[in-house]
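Troubleshooting log. The previous structure file for this entry was overwritten by mistake, so regenerating from the original sequence record. Sequence copied from the archived sheet and checked twice against the printout by T.R.
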Amino acid sequence: MRRETGHEVSKGAALLVACMAGFLTPFMVSSISVALPAISKDFNLNAVILAWIPTAYLLAAAIFLVPFGRIADIHGRKKVFLYGMILYTISCFLLPFSKSEAMLLVFRVLEGIGSAAIFSTGTAILISVFPPGERGKALGINVAAVYAGLSLGPAIGGFLTEHFTWRSIFFINGPLGLVVVALVLTKLRGEWTEAKGEKLDVIGSIIYGLGLAALIIGFSMFPKANGVWLLAAGVAGLLLFIFLETRIKHPVLNLRLFRHNTVFTMSNVAALINYSATAGVVFLLSLYLQYIKGFTAERAGLVLLVQPLVMSALSPLAGRMSDRMEPRVVATAGMALTTAGLVPLIFLNRDSGVWYIVMCLLLLGLGFGLFSSPNTNAVMSSVERKFYGVASATLATMRLVGQMLSLATVMLLFSVIIGKVQITPEYYDAFLTSSRVGFTVFAALCFVGIFASVARGKVKRQ
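Regenerated output below.
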């Protein structure tokens, strides 16, 4: 039962907390992206292990997202959000003290688990508080905060890495996390538990997590025999999960939402495709700028600033547009522009100018800014209130699984084309080949995503 509704104080507090949390996690992700060469140097990491630094975080977040969304619907969204923010903050204080790549990866997993609780509840809380006619605006502001984090991450992360080492990035995030915890405890009133009294599907949650982990780890080990077996086990596990979820009363992931809801289904598919096609771009361009162009982490961060700045500026407008017109129109235009930004990157080489990259990032920023908040509005407006937590977690899962698949594609290309070696000058040509193949795959995916976005149909707002 929802205990507190609609008051302006609740709206403002919910938006403030969601925006601050929405800023923190992408800030961490994007700031670490420019610090990867420095981390590689400190721990002597090969190209594949280097890719695991962002992937470990995303994998942990994706595994726990759907279960946490369900737990939030049953026991309270604010409660799950708060516990997630506390765990995220603790991990940020632990990460700077990593003495090896193993410690770093373990703490990144903890950070991912905390982020899962944040991702699965933040949007659901906003949707619970704001009425249908105001959701697009609220989501647009929230997405703008996310993009502000993405924008400032490369610049601040690059500066900190250059002048204070990469470990200083985590010291920035820890205190900010404490501020969000304090705001939740003092400002965010009420609780939301529309599925109170229902049961959590523990077995389904375990099968889902193991299947997803096997899939991504298998991807990183492919084409070795162990990688093939893990991939097969991962696919089998996820198919078993789907089979079981359609046959129990209270599934952790309500697949009925997909069965008779074209808007929900195709909007989630579009999100999966979009993130699969874009998440690896910043990772590759960060390495390209620092290895091939010889940029410092600080200078590379300033170049990468272009895309999220445009996204941050455009997303509130796109959110408001999706309140007044069909979200699929705005989102599809965004998907088309994203494709247009990816195609030129296929031809990236040693002599490509910085302005060439900036123009590609500008197009990508325009595309993603138009796509994200209208697509989120379409998903959340297409389901009943009692499914907000699961819908929010499902969409966030599509985002994180897409990001993982994107980075897994990069890991696979690095493994096959470069090998498990450090990216040194003798491997620069192999790195460029990997990048061009990756951008080709991403552009093709995004082109397919245009049709998935169109196919969603009209939103019937709940």
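The radius of gyration is 21 Å. Archived copy saved in two places this time.
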